[in-house]
Amino acid sequence: MKSYALLTTLILALGANTANAQDKPAPNQIEQISYFRADVRDRPGCLPSFVEGRVRWPDAIGNPAIDCPDAFAWTSLVSAIRQSFWTWGTDQTIWVANPKPICLPGQSSSDCCDPRTIEPQSGPTTGSPPQGCPFFPTDWTEPPPLTVAKPNPSHSHDFLKTLDPARVLRQEEAEIIFRNRPFVRYTFQENLYNKESLGARFTAMQNWISEHAPFANPALTVDYPTDAVMFKVDFLSQAEMLKAGLISEKDGQGGRLDPPNDPEHPYVTMRIDETIAPGNEEPQFYYLVSVTAASKALPNWHWYAFEHVKNLGRCDYTGCNDAFGYRARGINVGGAFFGWNFIPPKTENSKDSSNDIVFRTGTPYTVEETGEAISPALEELFAAAGIATGRGPEDPRVPSAEDPAWKSYRLKASQTSFVTETGMPTHAGQSITEGGFVNSASCLTCHSQAGPDADGNPGVPGIGSRTDLNLFGLNQTVNGAPEPDWFFAEGTTVMRSLPMDFVWGMLNATCVVPDGKTGKCKSYDGPQFAPPVGRIEPELTTRKPARVKPRTSSHPNN
User: Fold this and answer.
1) pLDDT tens-digit profile of 289-332?
2) b/e per residue 348-384 (b: at least 16 CB within 10 A)
């Protein structure tokens, strides 16, 4: 009888759920496609803690970056804040202007760059870093100030201000890519900071393949250490923030805010020297609106993006997915709670004779609409790590870990693979950096194209863009698995591009000795441009390293 009663209860419950399902409209086409982007990416048990100054994971979690990509994104953010990422190296301190060649072993000269200077010291060295050489700012007592070029005024068409306001802000942003010490050290010591060395490394790899295939030479492969971090921050100036209505000069009670901010969801602020013209810098307050970052915890890096909660259109097109930090409203089906990790993009009826369902873009995703609330796990992680525990910034000119403004940011997406297990291309892109092409953005795929040709220039033209255009006429970007012919001429081992381990910073590399305005260098030959061989196994060190052969007659610089 008990079994019969239980069966009857289940049938009645199913009937009730079916009736409720019939009352609810069937998912529209946008909601159906969003299903492929709404997956729960963290496995059960992804509960990191912060103990004795470091993040710890449960024993059952074998590889946090794979098992818990969303939680790992939050712990990566916590670690970067605690390490004061705003003091790290930048593209301008790594791929320096007017670079000098690297010093050879035993060589010490003001005309070359000694990679030993990047090794940790007992304290900062007195003075300024040498001109023309990579450096880590905190290694010196007088590093040059952090500067950004004054953004050019946006000429975006007026219709974008409504349909895609993030694209308009993208034209005004100041983008700074911070890179931690392991990243800077590897780039310097591996001689990857000037065009001659990048081109020479390409040639050395091509020579190796031509002479020694199928055997690989790890010393020629660009492979950053597992603790390397890239941390790209999008800032907007105070003038642009006020113009866009994102901040206010007064608080909720009418009091004056100095500097202006959002009283309900404050922004992290930083004072940066804005370069109006060479030698003409003017300090300005800048506001952190979004972050795109990557940690080399995985061979293809672990990628993640954060957005300020008030960014207009932050979940447009692809939605927002976070299985750890903030819980959204989700849905209740039969008394069970589903989908709290996903905020779908907004839709509306086209209001014409077709009655099509279309994206509704460029509006805020307010907490009242999404139901977002910080999870107990993130609350505990922040508290233990000392993040957002204060009442305000210690100094609005410099970010601080205690600033409660860190709770204004939301994880947009994490990304660890090119495609899903069912072959669907994965997407990750935040509204500011990828403004205008968020719906096709993939950090992994775009950055997989990074790599030099024989001249130290990008081997894959287009820098992640493809020939498809969106309805605004803006380029879309590559996504999904990389194409083999980006790197090798089809059916051959003739190289087109040497993979740079997903690092587009190489675009900032310049020549030690430029060949006029051709974008090429006078010469790519010589021991100071040759790749190092320090990673070859000890029993192989007696073998001769791959040599950079002279250019073929087809090269214009021969």
Assistant:
1) 999 999 999 999 999 999 999 999 999 999 999 999 999 999 99
2) eeeeeeeeeebeebbeebebeebebeebebbeebbeb
